Amino acid sequence: MSAGMALWALTLGLLLLTALGHLCLLHLRRQRRPGEPPLDKGHVPWLGHALAFRKNMFKFLKGMREKHGDIFTVQFGGQYFTFVMDPLSYGPILKDTKRRLDFVSYARQLVFKVFGYRSLDGDHHMIHAASTKYLMGPSLQELNKVMLDSLSLVILGPAGWGPGHSGWHEEGLFNFCYKVLFTAGYLALFGFTRDKEQDVLQAQALFSEFCKFDVLFPRFVYSLLGPREWREIGRLQRLFHKMVSVRENRDKEGVSSWLSFMLQYLREQEVPEDMQDKFNFMMLWASQGNTGPSSFWALAFLLKHPEAMQAVRKEATGLLGEARLKDRQPFQVDVSVLHHTPVLDSVMEESLRLGASPTLLRLVQEDCALKMASGQEYLVRRGDIVALFPYLSVHMDPDIHPDPTAFQYDRFLNPDGSRKVDFYKAGRKIHHYSMPWGAGVSICPGRFFALSEMKLFLLLMVTHFDLELLDPATPVPPVDPNRWGFGTTQPTHDLHFRYRLRPPE
């Protein structure tokens, strides 16, 4: 080895030792102060528990709760997260009238990293205003009609029902639900051209690329991609920025009022067109990333529980009669029936309880105290993140939901058939008994449209189709552990089924 190379090796070694020493110093410096929650930094400097958390979030948090109780602080990659596991203590955190716990700042960082979009100060309020105006009430009724037409187009084709639809079709249930809901939802929100057949093909091509992005998404958020995967993420981001760009959608008809309202706001704020393209990408993911997987869980549970399928079909028949397609016609459903489906509503709520696992995050803006339901207070530090994981702390709590891992289609129904809203923990009525959409300022603003999409899809499937699992003994697949904490979970593998249209009139 030359003297120059030896000197370089020595210098590099010293730099690495210095960096490692700095990480160890940071690791050792943080100590639990009086009044703070239990602190568990892990054994690896800086990384802390990041790898165990990423490997299986549900298993990790369950173990931490058993070790430390209902509140604890853990380290992931130099950042400290305080998890609150007692749902009776959620109220003050979710309300936070003093604004000491901020959702918007953290969300801004995430959307810039994932979608390349730089949020404006008023974006959060603008998105909620658009969703309140166009994804609820009378406007939602109109959008549901558009969604029904989109589902007809995607499932039946531009010509409507034909002889080619009469036989059995075999497919993976997850892929089928995700593809149909994504394609129809994209067309309903982002608009059509005059060539409907080409629209469907273009939307399906978009779905194919979306699936590639979706597979990488969890590790992308945690910055755990390999070099090739980082390049692939960059390619996909550029592709989506182009495919859902303002320019590409300019000549489309029927772009939803929801999307038009938001883009008009961005134009008024003089946001550059390329940044509007990135906003569209963000809205595509927000609107289409969870409805397909959620519908999969609901339909999978119905197929595995004949009594639930029978109850839903009985309710649907009472509302719609013996629905049958007319030759070469789209689906005909009065969308107002979506307001009168308590059994289907309970099925959806139960499916979401079992399938949705959002993480609610709040950035601590100033040193403050969290008051637990027990009356005890814990101090949290500025710059830390307060986190809630309701799947474990609420959805799987046997006190709130007896036999919590079981699917019970009528869990959210009273004996008289009305919606059940009274749930208890430790003898106390609990407000947040189901949180698939998040809560507080971070609650999903498009939840009413998302639920309508899924209910419409399920109504069409149970009333117009014969549905069978290829192997009735096959269990519902377990959750892919990589998907914990990212909205609706996904299965480790698909569930194969077959379907056929019932004969037309």
UniProtKB/TrEMBL annotation:
Subcellular location: Endoplasmic reticulum membrane
Transmembrane segments: none
Organism of provenance: Erinaceus europaeus (Western European hedgehog)
Gene3D superfamilies: Cytochrome P450 (1.10.630.10)
Biological process terms in GO annotation: lipid metabolic process
Cofactor: heme
Gene Ontology cellular-component annotations: endoplasmic reticulum membrane
Name under which the protein is recorded: 5-beta-cholestane-3-alpha,7-alpha-diol 12-alpha-hydroxylase
One Pfam family hit: p450
Binding site for substrate: 113, 290
Binding site for heme: 444
Protein family (similarity comment): Belongs to the cytochrome P450 family.
Any one GO molecular function term: iron ion binding
UniProtKB keywords: Endoplasmic reticulum, Heme, Iron, Lipid biosynthesis, Lipid metabolism, Membrane, Metal-binding, Signal, Transmembrane, Transmembrane helix
Signal peptide: 1-21
UniProt membrane topology term: Single-pass membrane protein
Alphabetized InterPro entries for the sequence: Cyt_P450, Cyt_P450_CYP7A1-type, Cyt_P450_E_grp-IV, Cyt_P450_sf
Main location group: endoplasmic reticulum
